[in-house]
Amino acid sequence: MVELLPHQAIALTSDHKYTAITSGVGGGKTWTGVHWVVRMSKEYPKSLGFIGANTFSQLRNSTLAAVFNELMRLEIPFSYNQSSGILEILGKKWLCKSMDNFDVLRGIEVGEIWLDECAYMKEEAFQVISGRLRDRYGALKVLLTSTPKGFNWFFHYMHKDGDCPLPNSKLIRATSMDNSFLPEGYIDSLKSQYDSKLIEQELAGEFINVRTGVIYHGFDKQLHTMECSLPPRFPVYAGMDFNPNRMAVVVGYIKLDTLFVIDEIFDTTPGSNTESVCRKLIAKYGNEVTIVPDSTGIKSTSNSNRSDHQIIRDLGLKIKSATNPFRVDRYNAVNLSFEKGRVFINPKCKNLIRDLEQVSYKDGSDKPDDSDKNLTHMSDALGYLIYRTVNPLQNKSRPIRSQLR
C-alpha cells in the first residue's frame, strides 16, 4: 500500500517536462523519486532511464538505498549491477551514476531523468545530462528532488522569480513538517542540530542564501560578552590557529557545558610562531593548559623543523588532537552555541569580538573573505575550541568536559 502526501501526489502526477520538489530534511523527496521511477518503469519500459546523485557515496548510501528498500517493501522485482551501474526494474533499465564526473555522460541517450539533491550539483552537470534526454521510447521528463541551496542555478531554473526559469516546468515546495509519517521527536531532533538560519533552509525548505553576510550571525555583543575570569582550580583550555606572524589563541574554561572565554593572544609581530605564543600562554597560565588546535599543525609548522603539535608537546602542554571538522559544521556549531547561550566572551578579547562581528562570506561561497589579513584567525581558533568542547550538535564532538583540578 502506498500513501501519498499532497506534495508527493502533485509531483507524481505532473505532466510537465521538468518537475522539481523541494522540502526540508525528511520531507519525503527521495521517497517521491523512488515512486516516480516505479511509475516510469511501468509506463515506459523500452527506454533507458537515468538516476543521478552528487557523489557515488550519496548515490549508494542514500538514493539507491531508498530505492532498494521501497522496492523490497512493495515486492517489486529488481536487480542491480554495481560495476555497470544498471538497475533493472520490471524489465526497464536505469543507468545510475554520480554527477561529480558528468563528462562521461555525454554519449548516452535517456528517456527519463531523476536527479536527487540536485541543487548541490554543478550547473554544467545538469546541463549535460539534460542534453541527453532524447530516447524516443521514453517520457522525456525530468524529476528534480532537493533541499534548496541558496539562490543558485536550481533556483533560477525552477523558481518563477528566477532569472531563467525553464519552460514547461513546475516547482512544488514542502517542509519537513509536512511529512506526517516522520517518527515522533524527529523534527525537534533536527532543530537541535541547526542554527536559526540553517533551520530556514534545512527544515522549512526556503530559498535563502546562508552564505552571504556575516558568518557568525549567532553572536550578539550585547548578549554574549561579560566580565569573566578564571575561577580557582578550573582547567584551562585554549583554541589555537597556526599562522606565521599571526598566531591566534583564545583561552577559556568550561562550567556546566558553557565556555567562558577569558583571554586572547593575537601575536602579529614579525617572527611570531607556535613556540613564542605558547611561551606567552605558559607565562600567564602555567603548563596545565589543554590546547585544542587546528589539526593541520600535525603536518605543517609555522616556523620550525618540528610540527606545531610537537612543539606544543615539547613545551609540556597538553594537546587535544582531532581532524578538523568541515567548515560549514564548525560555523554551525559556533552559531548554535551562541544561540543556546553556551559561550560568553570577556569584553577585553577585542580581536576575537572584531572577528565575530566582521568575518563574512566571500562571493557567496562557503569560504570566508580573507582580504583583511588580520581577520578570520581568532574566530577559527574559537571554532576549533567550541567544536571539541561545548558543541551542542553531538555528544561525540564534546570529549572535553568541565571538571575541577
By CATH's scheme, which homologous superfamily of the largest domain applies? P-loop containing nucleotide triphosphate hydrolases
Q: Kindly report the CATH topology of the largest domain.
A: Rossmann fold
Strand content: 15-25%
Rounded to the nearest angstrom, the radius of gyration is: 25 Å
Low-pLDDT residue intervals, each spanning 5 or more residues? 395-405
Task: Count the E strands.
Answer: 14
Structural class: alpha/beta
Helix content: 25-40%
Shape: elongated
Q: How many strands, what sense, and barrel or not for the largest sheet?
A: 8 strands, mixed
* Number of alpha- plus pi-helical segments: 13
CATH hierarchy, class of the largest domain: Alpha Beta
End-to-end CA span: 61 Å
| N-to-C order of helices and strands | HEHEHEEEEHEHEHHHEEEHEHEHEHH
Could you report the average pLDDT, rounded to the nearest whole number? 88
How are the strands of the largest sheet arranged?
3-4-5-2-6-7-1-8
Mind explaining what this structure looks like?
This protein has 405 residues and is an alpha/beta fold. The protein folds into 2 domains: 6-202, P-loop containing nucleotide triphosphate hydrolases (Rossmann fold), CATH 3.40.50.300; 221-397, Nucleotidyltransferase, domain 5, CATH 3.30.420.280. It has 13 helices and 14 strands. The protein has helices at residues 6-12, 29-43, 56-73, 123-130, 153-158, 186-191, 196-202, 221-224, 274-285, 308-314, 327-339, 350-358, 377-387; strands spanning 18-22, 49-53, 78-81, 86-89, 92-98, 112-116, 141-146, 169-173, 236-241, 247-255, 258-267, 289-293, 318-319, 343-345. The longest helix is centred in the N-terminal third of the chain and has 18 residues, at 56-73. The protein is elongated, with a radius of gyration of 25 Å. Mean pLDDT is 88; it is low at 395-405.
